[in-house]
Amino acid sequence: MELNSQARGLTRAALWGQTSIVALAMATCAGYATGANAQAAPKSEATQLGEIVVTAQRRSESILKTPVSITAVTGEALRASGANTASQLGDLVPNLQITKSVSLQISIRGVSNENSLQSGDPSAAFNVDGVYIARPQAQGAKFFDLERIEVLRGPQGTLYGRNATGGAINLIPNKPVDHLEASASAEIGNFNTFRTTAVINAPVNDFLDLRAAFASNKHDSYLVAGPATITGHNSRLGSDEDDVEARLQALIKFSPGVTLRISVDGANDTALPPMQVPVTNFFQGVNPIFGPGTWFDSSSKAQRTVNWDPSFTGRNSARDRGTLAEFNADLGFAALTYLGAYRSFKYYKDEPVYFLSLGEANRGQLFNNNESSHELRLASKPGRRLTWVAGLYRFQEHSTGVTEFLPPLPLPLTSPPYNYRLFYANAKADSTAVFGQATFSLTDSLRVTGGLRYTKDGKSSNSPTTSQVGPIYNPTTDISVANIASKSYSKVNWKAGLEYDVAPGVMLYGDVSTGYKAGGYNSGCLATTPGCNNVQTESALFYAPEELTAYEAGAKGRFFDNKVRASLTGFYYDYRNMQLQGISPATAQVTTTNAATATIYGAELEGVWAPTRVDKIDFALTLLHAKYDSYQINALTNWAGFDLDRSPSYSIMVGYNHTFDLPNGADVVAGIDTRANASSIISNFNAAVQYKMPSYTRTNVVLTYNSPEHQWYVQGYANNLEDNVRPGGIVLGAAFLSDPRTYGIRVGAKF
């Protein structure tokens, strides 16, 4: 049933009321636990949890002083967990779901996006070293030599702007430093896993510091060859790993307050992309295209089994390159930062596409993407009554390529069948923005924040589709259809918030903010376009921007003599003009429309408790309500009141580490963590069906020996002890999978 505005208002008021009560209780506890006693706490107790500094608000500050919902995962925590790709980050961060399908799918608090085409954009901003990565296909960066990862939940429309409706993920590498250091690691595991990393930092002189980092990753396919798959090809079934990455940085110090950092990075990937298995590996009673069936439990091996025709053996070659320049200057009254970057991403892949009982087709793709971005920021010095940041931003993107389907696509997807179909890509996007945000201290404890950002986005395309009807190849009968579109969009996003320090090290905050994702275009062209032979109306050719208004309140701080660091957040989203995708049965082309509105609300509690010097407990609890208010998916089906994709109603995360001190100064750290997710759904929008996946858990264990002075370590690990495998995406009767159980040994040293 659709919520009316009065009901939404009551829901929002109730949520804020409940969150405020719990936050006030936390603050009251803090008053007793961290008041006068906190000043006298022993230094070892006060610092045992460590201080995490983040740059979520474009300035360095403690995570406990940052009035946004943020989780920071340090490089050391990444090493301890064994997470080395973005898809594994979801096990570490509350209300974050990252799955692998056609490309990386990121869902934050139920806000996600299925559109991986050049005409669309993701709903979460993915930034590497401060640079926005637009294409989901290029967001598979490995986690090596990272200082930390910051995950910001909620719209970041003021400071990050472009396509940060759901939030932002920031990968922050280690920077060059002024002393010599080096490290190396190696890992072996099941599925013939072999990974290496190497880092060296070398100060050349007082003027120049250099840092180089390298990583290689390899494992065999996670899939299992069925009887129809040719013997010996199991390692090339897809869902394998085979890549190398490197990063070289130079820090030039013109003076103590003026620096220039130059970074170049590259990656080569020859692994096959995530491959599909029949959706019937998970669901019984599935109609080939139009029915979801019901879940049934099976072994991990059975779920990962495929029966590919040997002629559809795939291949892949991807290349990612980037150059970055960051200039910082202390102007006295403020700090000036310029960040400019150019990135290119290219891939070629040849893969089978599975249509359940309807058969297979071969898909070849050649894709080229170039991005350039420039950001100029001016930020006030910290410690003043008024702090502010202001900036200009410019982004440009150009994508070209071709996607080919061979042999004929099976009915009923096309009518008549095609001998081949080529989708050409020639798309451009640009974005220009001016932004500013300021915080004013009304008193020593009370602060008010306001921010604005004006963004103008442009998108254009000249991407024809060439098809050939009939089962016999004859290029003289090619049919070419024009797809020509050009559109610009603009939006003013804003944020208003309050912060109040109720006790030393404890803060309450609340804010209202907006997010925006640019609109785009579908296949076709307007009747006024020269040479148009695929006429569409304005409303059918273009779809409007997606918009979200978020209300958030929370508390964060240190409690109980600094043995507990915790945060509590409540949020409410009014989600409008949702951009949703479907495939036209008549043309087999993807169409995006502003098909729905939704209401999302929930709460998040996360933190860490160190009851003793050698014990540490991480915990998180999330509650989430994410449902469509209105969604007439087709003439016969209405999804009002249905769940949004990848939005489990709850998730629980608990981890425990214990350190055993050894007489020689070494130690052994034993750790276990588990995540329990409620049931969730994945939609097949073109068929108007939702696949419901049951609740599940994923448990990881790790045992690490650290030498005296922590100069080297040996670590054994096992991830996903339950061997739970879940679909990450479902398209036309085929499913992309999460990782199965993995285990292995790592060794590492630093010098």
UniProtKB/TrEMBL annotation:
Keywords: Cell outer membrane, Ion transport, Iron, Iron transport, Membrane, Receptor, TonB box, Transmembrane, Transmembrane beta strand, Transport
One annotated GO biological process: iron ion transport
InterPro entries hit by this protein: Beta-barrel_TonB, Beta-barrel_TonB_sf, Plug_dom, TonB-dep_rcpt-like
Primary residence: membrane
Compartmental location: Cell outer membrane
Annotated membrane topology: Multi-pass membrane protein
Pfam family, one: TonB_dep_Rec_b-barrel
TonB-dependent receptor-like beta-barrel domain boundaries: 283-721
GO cellular component, one term: cell outer membrane
Stretches assigned to the TonB-dependent receptor plug domain: 64-168
Stated family: Belongs to the TonB-dependent receptor family.
PANTHER family for the chain: FERRICHROME IRON RECEPTOR-RELATED, TONB-DEPENDENT OUTER MEMBRANE RECEPTOR
Protein name: TonB-dependent receptor
Upper lineage: Bacteria, Pseudomonadati, Pseudomonadota, Alphaproteobacteria, Caulobacterales
